[in-house]
């Protein structure tokens, strides 16, 4: 039985070594990050859109501890190893790295991607982009990816819970 290419899931140190080679080769590196708990079509579309902005797409994945601190004690639903393997299996994704902080500022400051992608919900400036100063400081750019209406992990969990509760109450 064929397994997902786990060699696409790398620690930051290994990615940084690869990054040096990509820079020499003139490869444009794109970064996006998130929890990606219960992968859905909105995630897939965002990865494809991010990949179209460069040559190498690196996805930063919040660790289980980080997801719990952001989303609450009942999350993640899927453990970090499984989430990383799922994301790595996608054609648009070149590499995945897991990070433990609630935001990717430290990782981005070390990897220095050419393009940092955020969801369009950050574009209007009402939500802070903690990575902005770091990315713009080294000459990178921030791009906002369109949101995909009705596609969210929180919404998906809500629909699953409602369906389950509905079955139990019948």
Describe the structure using short key phrases.
globular; 5 strands; Rossmann fold; 170 residues; 7 helices; alpha/beta; five-stranded parallel β-sheet
| Alpha carbon gap, first and last residue | 40 Å
**At the third CATH level, what is the topology name?**
Rossmann fold
Give me the secondary-structure category. alpha/beta
- Give the strand content: 15-25%
Bulk shape:
globular
What is the spatial order of strands in the main beta sheet? Answer: 3-2-1-4-5
The CATH architecture assignment turns out to be: 3-Layer(aba) Sandwich
Which CATH first-tier class would you pick? Alpha Beta
* Portion in helices: 40-55%
Order of helix and strand elements from N to C terminus: HEHEHHEHEHEH
CATH homologous superfamily caption: HUPs
Residue stretches low in confidence (pLDDT < 50, at least 5 long) are none
Major sheet description: 5 strands, parallel
Radius of gyration in whole Å, from Cα? 17 Å
What integer is the average pLDDT? 89
**Tally of DSSP β-strands:** 5
**Tally of helical runs:** 7
Whole-number count of domains: 1
Structural write-up:
The chain has one domain (6-168): Rossmann fold. It has 170 residues and is α/β, with parallel strands linked by helices. It has helices at 12-24, 41-51, 64-71, 80-88, 105-111, 132-137, 153-168; strands at residues 29-34, 56-62, 95-99, 115-119, 141-145. It is 41% helix and 16% strand. It has a 5-stranded parallel beta sheet with strand order 3-2-1-4-5.
């Amino acid at each position: 039985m064929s397994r997902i290419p786990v060699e696409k899931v790398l620690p930051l140190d290994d990615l940084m070594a690869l990054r040096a080679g990509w820079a020499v080769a003139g490869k444009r590196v794109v970064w996006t990050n998130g929890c990606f708990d219960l992968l859905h079509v909105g995630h897939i579309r965002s990865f494809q859109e991010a990949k179209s902005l460069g040559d190498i797409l690196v996805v930063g994945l919040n660790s289980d501890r980080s997801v719990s601190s952001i989303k609450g004690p009942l999350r993640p639903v899927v453990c970090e190893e499984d989430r990383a393997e799922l994301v790595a299996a996608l054609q648009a994704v070149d590499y995945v790295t897991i990070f433990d902080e609630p935001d990717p500022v430290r990782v981005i400051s070390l990897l220095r991607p050419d393009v940092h992608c955020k969801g369009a919900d950050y574009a209007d400036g009402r939500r802070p982009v903690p990575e902005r100063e770091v990315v713009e400081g080294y000459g990178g750019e921030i791009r906002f990816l369109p949101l995909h209406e009705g596609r969210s992990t929180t919404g998906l969990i809500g629909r699953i819970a409602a369906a389950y509760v509905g079955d139990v109450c019948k």
